[in-house]
Amino acid sequence: MGRNGTKRLLLVEDDRALAELVKYHFAREGFTVTSTGVGDEALILIDEVQPDLVILDWMIEGVSGIEVCRRLRRSPATASLPIMMLTARGEEDDRVRGLETGADDFITKPFSPKELIARANALLRRSRPNLLAKKLNYEGIEMDLVAHRVRREGKPVALGPTEYRLLRHFLENPQRVFSRQQLLESVWPHSEEIELRTVDVHVRRLRIALSKDQQFDLIRTVRSEGYSLDADGAA
Amino acid sequence: MGRNGTKRLLLVEDDRALAELVKYHFAREGFTVTSTGVGDEALILIDEVQPDLVILDWMIEGVSGIEVCRRLRRSPATASLPIMMLTARGEEDDRVRGLETGADDFITKPFSPKELIARANALLRRSRPNLLAKKLNYEGIEMDLVAHRVRREGKPVALGPTEYRLLRHFLENPQRVFSRQQLLESVWPHSEEIELRTVDVHVRRLRIALSKDQQFDLIRTVRSEGYSLDADGAA
DNA sequence: AGCAACTGTCACAAAAGTGAAACAGTTTTG
DNA sequence: CAAAACTGTTTCACTTTTGTGACAGTTGCT
Predict the structure, then answer these.
(1) D6 C1' – B205 CA distance, angstroms?
(2) For residue A1, is pLDDT > 70?
(3) pTM here?
(4) A165, A222, B27, B127: which one has the fewest Cβ atoms less than 10 Å from its Cβ?
């Protein structure tokens, strides 16, 4: 996401005037803004433009903003996409509900564009490290996302593309157990047609690559569940 | 940070009544709360308690909240620590300034405790995903449902799938007695065809796994009734 | 084209987990 | 106290799940 230096924003807002205002301010901040006023369209656009940030109005045509949010969180591909919700509904319960559904921030209209931008920046500052920026590490493993290079205890580790993506996924969610199905969905580009057991094979390749120098295995097999990246493997 | 399952909050607020209120609500969410009303002290405490989240009032004695925030961001050790700022100053410029200084969220008094919690959770969800993992505890046993891992007194416990489900069921209903029949029905996938006595065997395996280090038995046998997870086995 | 790296599947081996049966031990009852 | 009723333990055959090595088809590069 967010290649060649441009930050991409998807704005989902059906009030044209407001949309223009927001657009203007974000454009000035260097964002490429795509916008729509319809919920269903938002879901398609997200797939298309791969935004770095989504701003969602609650009340829009078609699928509601909160429902869009829920769906984005449910799909592995967008589960960690930064989302800000926007609404005229000022009720506390709405705000809590929005946040609990997975929104990262919740702004009530009317709001100041400056604050919106400041909040967007705060959010990106926080979530970028995981998506865009430099390094991930866990227990002696260091993955440099820019250089596309992995080291363990300082020593370089050679990984194929799939193993790299797999490890990256684990590093982004250490200790968490993923089923083979989940791994396929979040690590493989076209997960549909692929055999579940293929995951095993790649996990094995990853294990071998990570343990080249007789280091202990960091990938834990959770029988009948899946795998996780975990320091104390067996226990 | 945030080891052994407890989430730690450092609250920096000099309004005693407000501090108590916030404390109360976060404690209910499972946080261990440390608090102070003095800026300088905050910096020391952060080093000491290694909180997972800091809530900073802007106007406090000594070093101001915003200055604390700035310093935290400057030091590598705390640069990515989640920070929420709190203030009575409702000015837009203040909010923007707070966010630009590195705060992750900015809440204006008066605020609702529920929203504060919801925002804290949203922030932690993004920055410390492990902390939000759902956990079950009882008498020194801790089951992390996301990592799919069980510990007793901090030490990892190895369980097979059935024992895991069995323990989970007990942890969800501690102290309650279940008949073998009930256990079969709620823990086994296809309970029909299975012998009642099979439960005994698995209970035994669970007991062994949980008592590996000579710890006392937490599963109580209730003669002619069934079993329960219960601290005082005799009773 | 020629080669090397990478992928996805299989088939088979190995490991882990499961359920039942049999017997030993305990507790409750008559 | 002895019989009856239960529960604890051990063992074993069987099933399910994973680990492994080999292989053939792709892809990307030179």
Answers:
(1) 19
(2) no
(3) 0.80
(4) B27
